[in-house]
Amino acid sequence: MNLIEELTWRGMYHDSMPGTAEHLAANAPITGYIGFDPTAASLHIGNLATIMLLVHLQRAGHRPVALVGGATGMIGDPSGKSAERNLLDEATLRHNQAGIQAQLEKFLDFSEGPTGALVVNNYDWFKEIGFLGFLREVGKHLTVNYMMAKDSVKRRIGGGEDADSSGISYTEFSYQLLQGYDFVHLNKTLGCTLQMGASDQWGNITTGTELIRRMANAEGTEAKAYALTGQLITKADGTKYGKSETGTVWLDPALTSPYQFYQFFLNSADADAPRLIRVFTLLSEEEINAIEAEHAAAPHLRTLQKALAADVTTRVHSAEATEAAIAASQVLFGGGDLASLDEATLLDVFAGVPHLRVPRTELVGLNAATFLSDFTEHKIFPSKGEARKMIQAGGVSINREKVASADALVAAAQHLAGRYLVVQKGKKNYFLVELV
Q1: What strand order describes the sheet that includes 192-198?
Q2: CA–CA separation, 327 vs 321, rounded Å?
Q3: What three-state secondary structure class fits 399?
Q4: Is 399 exposed, middle or buried (0-12, 13-18, 19+ CB in 10 A)?
Q5: How much is the pTM?
Q6: pLDDT tens string 22-35
Q7: Are residues 138 and 85 in contact, defined by beta-carbon separation less than 8 angstroms?
Q8: What does residue 145 show for φ and ψ, rounded to 5 degrees?
């Protein structure tokens, strides 16, 4: 199966320039690239869909290049933006680039050979180009009319219903010219003939193919250049995909923990999961069809979401991180072992429950009824009488252990991660008590 066929059945293909399919078929391996914006030290779920385009390019027998925009990242792409963003300094961009490259290495094969992946930084060639030289050698090949016709520019300079009154600076207006020159440079130095990206990048990508054509014509030569875009990943209701209730879902475990990452996919709606498993995993069509059939037979078991979450978490983090995330998930829903969780995961699991802080030294001699009412400022039970009643009914546990008696000493309970107690009241009410 060739690249476009693979992307099509997965629902990832959006558009390509005429002749792209033939070029891919006749010239394997070709070199193709995608640019990544280094405005953060980590990529996120939205970027992951784009990374998968490079993964499939390599699996189809071609050479993927990831371009980290150290130069263009100093300016900012106006596509999809209504206002100019703050610019980052070079030191911050370099730090971000290092983090991004480390993440890309988890997905692409960087071994030597004709299909081995490369990471390049456009700052490395732009730093050698002066402003006058760039205008003379590059800028003269594209007209202002051509550049203004791009949707990302038109939306910012007026003339449409969704136009933004703040306009667009010359800095951002020039972005497409700089990105176009990236393609020119990679075409000349690496023989790169394909640029890919999300569908909202079509205007910038085709600027590159047009610039290559015009510069080659001016030199009396010919150059091949093609464009291919993938579908933007949205939810079934059309809203943007990639954010949770707490914000962006990052690939860096320090920004989004493996447990939170796993939960994000596990909580996918039934309407979204079939598309997501095709985009974010490398499972075959037959494997996905089998999982979907199993899911349809018992939707409440969430077989599809579990397969999706496990596969993606393993590739982004590790098999060990996935096992820990699954174990943590069992704590709330399957009675897993609380003591097996480290402090960070424990806090992740109980991030949405009331978090109470109490003095550790005052637990000595304290019975359960008093602890669950007066000592915790009546946030668990309004009175000792209410606490006694539910304890007698067997409806209260501390760290998954049923509280046998209202007079049981709380100090005897094991402290999770050295300083936490998890109180369960009834079937669904949890409280995290931190001993300080």
Answers
A1: 13-16, 226-230, 192-198, 31-36, 63-68, 118-121
A2: 10
A3: coil
A4: middle
A5: 0.80
A6: 999 988 899 999 99
A7: no
A8: -60, -45
